[in-house]
């Protein structure tokens, strides 16, 4: 654990950045993040704006751990990643997949503002772009009931010419277990790991085939590594649309996992119009290097948030740090 003096010093280093996204994603058009510097390097604190202060605690633990501790030793130096396709029209989906060079695409579906038919068309367009050898997974972000999933997943599976898995089709662990029993397409759990009080409950319930593991909401690289190991499921390390600093933490986790049978969701640097580091965040032939990045001073300056945004994040940081130090 970090003492209050060390935490105060790390918090005092806060830099707030705001980077526009190429396409709207999760209702967001500008990704905001606080970067923290400590003796071991940089950490990223970027919980989405709609999260309550208590939900932000693991994100702060993760950022402080990245800034103050060493990461576990890697067992590989590159990590295969998927390209992430937001809710966009088919032509845009094709362009994103082609530009990525990735052989796996994760397609967002079940967006509240769009129809099921548009999801089928987007997925079919992604298959055209990838060719028969590519892999397609879809992420419904907990939007469906079990009956909706039982109807829509087989339709998406056909439109895709085969799905690798469906990520978080429904909200609860019981619903995921029911979908898993009813369908042949493998089920991955995301929100049921990172937003549950017990991140291992989904594995214990046999409710998923695959664990999506995100560093920041699970409290940092080391904490997430322990969760992945205890879950005992094949793990997909994924980003929260991080800057290069947060992606480096995800890559450290992916680099340290003993087995990594699936492409990771760490190709999200390509969703941003720029980044805080010139170190590679765009996949090269579908993979990323396991790095330890420092933001470039020039790029930090280029993406510096305006005063209003900066004040909002520093206030939030202060409140969450108070919770951390008293809780
Ligand atoms: O996994 C990926 O390909 C990208 C990351 C991603 O989809 C995501 C990014 C921010 C918030 C939630 C999610 C999600 O997986 O649900
Ligand atoms: Mg997800």
From TrEMBL:
Residues given in the record as Mg(2+) binding sites: 139, 167, 190
Domain Mandelate racemase/muconate lactonizing enzyme C-terminal: 90-186
Pathway per the UniProt entry: Quinol/quinone metabolism; 1,4-dihydroxy-2-naphthoate biosynthesis; 1,4-dihydroxy-2-naphthoate from chorismate: step 4/7; Quinol/quinone metabolism; menaquinone biosynthesis
Named cofactor requirement(s): a divalent metal cation
CDD domains registered for this protein in UniProt: OSBS
Active site: 108 (proton donor), 214 (proton acceptor)
SUPFAM superfamilies, sorted: Enolase C-terminal domain-like (SSF51604)
Stored InterPro entries: Enolase-like_C_sf, Enolase_C-like, Mandelate_racemase_C, OSB_synthase_MenC1
UniProt entry keywords in alphabetical sequence: Lyase, Magnesium, Menaquinone biosynthesis, Metal-binding
Catalytically driven reaction(s): (1R,6R)-6-hydroxy-2-succinyl-cyclohexa-2,4-diene-1-carboxylate = 2-succinylbenzoate + H2O
GO terms of biological process kind: menaquinone biosynthetic process
Keyword match Magnesium: yes
GO molecular function: magnesium ion binding; O-succinylbenzoate synthase activity
SMART domains referenced in this protein's UniProt entry, alphabetically: MR_MLE
HAMAP family documented for this protein: MenC_1
Database matches in PANTHER family: O-SUCCINYLBENZOATE SYNTHASE, O-SUCCINYLBENZOATE SYNTHASE-RELATED
Name listed for the protein in its UniProt record: o-succinylbenzoate synthase
Source organism of the structure: Nakamurella alba
